């Protein structure tokens, strides 16, 4: 149901499953995610309650940590930002292939103007996920803002080879070509747009 955007039916089916199997952690996890996704007024509080209960039982679960970090980020305070970063750092330490957690860490650093930190986070992430175009693009963006235009262009090209529809990589490549005024890069950029 959830895959077909029939979230009310998905919630009802999961609740029915939990009545029959009240200790099924998999069902609780799915219900929590579906409630976050559905986003009705009471859903957020209910999902947060399920998240807290699951974290009590599974304190080192990377997925639960990531979900908590995403919820913490919604507060948008310096304290919540630091708490979320710490949670996400724990996630990537426990599960180095958690691309989405790495990307959130890179995005936070970029938003704070900490481009070297963003680049370093992307480098660590790529070490565990070498062929991920989103991570390559994220590093390309950081390199561009650090004025490492040659590296930014190379990374953007690599990301585009892996995913020709990667708009972030395309944007970085075009910006790099325009900034460098290199005729070869400009010609390649023209073919991308």
Order of helices and strands: HHHHHHHHHHH
Give the overall form: elongated
Q: Distance N terminus to C terminus?
A: 38 Å
Broad structural category: mainly alpha
Task: Indicate the percent of residues in helices.
Answer: over 70%
Q: Give the count of helical stretches.
A: 11
* Mean pLDDT across every amino acid position: 92
Rg measurement, Å: 20 Å
Question: How big a fraction of the residues is strand?
Answer: under 5%
Uncertain runs:
none
Quantity of strands, as a count: 0
Largest sheet: none
Describe the SSE topology.
Layout: H1 7-20, H2 25-38, H3 41-57, H4 62-73, H5 78-94, H6 99-111, H7 115-128, H8 133-145, H9 149-162, H10 167-180, H11 183-192
Describe this structure in words.
The protein is mainly α. The protein has 11 helices and no strands. The chain has helices at 7-20, 25-38, 41-57, 62-73, 78-94, 99-111, 115-128, 133-145, 149-162, 167-180, 183-192. α6 runs antiparallel to α7. The longest helix is centred in the N-terminal third of the chain and has 17 residues, at 41-57. It is elongated and about 65 Å long.
